[in-house]
Amino acid sequence: MPRIHFLDVTNRDGVQTARTGLSKFGKTMVNFYLGKLGVAQSEIGFPFLFHEVPYVRAQVALAEAGAFGDLRLSGWTRAVAGDVTASTPLGLKHYNLSISTSDQMLRNKFRGKFDRAAVVAEMVGAVRAAKEAGVATVGVNAEDGSRTDFGFLTEFALAAKEAGADRVRYCDTIGGETPGRIGERFAKLASAVGMPVETHCHNDLGMAVANSVAGALGDLDAGQDAWINTCVNGIGERSGNADLVSTILALQNGFGVADRVEIGDPLDLSWARRFAYWAAYAFNQPLAINQPGVGRNAFAHESGIHADGALKDHRNYELYDEDVLGPFPADWHERRGRVVLTGEYGGMAGFRHVMDGLGVTVAEPELTFKLVQLCNASTGRPLTDDELRLIAAYPHQLALLYPGLLA
Ligand SMILES: [Zn+2]
């Protein structure tokens, strides 16, 4: 039976969002939390960018050391052979290669540089370069796929498959899709090509989660696995991408959906609150009070009839149990009153005090303390308990983030 997998793009689409950003250490934490949540794959960034290279090396080392569980790490590049050959020596085993496919973009973005045939030729060259370099799986992204002529989209996807691609990513780049249409197009494309079609849905109409679910159902109807792109807290270009936690909750609890899908990833939502609140803190973008699952009001009842009903049986007014979302973070640095912290300008006494207080075993105090200083310098805000724990557990791998200083 075909199954659903998650491919989170917070570390690519999420971090390229205007007016926000994450340090490379912050991006590392995203991969850590994705591993804890059990999603299949993280699109970790742009390996051809000079400032991502130490970060990519650190992630590969962390994954090998087991810091991210079974999470697969993938890189994003343009579907251009030169980008691919510049990236593959870094050791990522999975890639998504992206090129625009709609007439709108061919005419008004490429402006005659590429016609349809040239787009296919560039993409095929990039897929072959990746496969020749030993990349394990390749997804090919049809940017603006939702505005792409269906016949050409099929031709593009078939050429990708023939060149060795494993999936095609259908990008609803401007977020204009609707659930009925995307479901139909996915089912048609996946069965015509015989390969999973990956969702990449933007939220310009507030339908990114609905479209992701509908697209995935289209894959399943065609007998193919489904791959769903998400971002933590729905962050992403403009109005964002499909929210990770909402999409999982929809597939696990949606009427008419939950009982007909099988999720292929070992998901563990007991990290959902910790991840969502960490991400709100790290991106400096507060969670909406009504954010599905993790917002402050997701399980709050005040009005008379609802409160009375919820007191009698919370299932009268709640779709899912709050226990599944795990605990809220209770970070050391959030303590009120007298508190000793550790960070960029701290010393060994404060560092030892905090680590002892958290019950963290520090096998390599000198290196770990320097990393606490450097990571705090890069985030510019107090480190969280999960961050301190990761630093203490994997100092040698994290040192790769700071070549010339520690590595
Ligand atoms: Zn996008």
TrEMBL record:
Keyword vocabulary terms for this entry: Transferase
Asked whether the keyword Transferase is assigned, the reply is yes
**Stretches assigned to the Pyruvate carboxyltransferase domain:** 4-267
Q: Quote the protein name from its UniProt record.
A: Homocitrate synthase NifV
The record, for InterPro entries, names: AIPM/Hcit_synth_CS (IPR002034), Aldolase_TIM (IPR013785), LeuA/HCS_post-cat (IPR054691), PYR_CT (IPR000891)
Presence of the UniProt keyword Transmembrane in the record: no
Report the transmembrane regions from the record: none
**Gene3D superfamilies for this protein:** Aldolase class I
- Tree of life domain: Bacteria
* Pfam families, per database record: HCS_D2, HMGL-like
From the UniProt record, which GO molecular function terms apply? acyltransferase activity, acyl groups converted into alkyl on transfer
- GO BP annotations, alphabetical order: carboxylic acid metabolic process
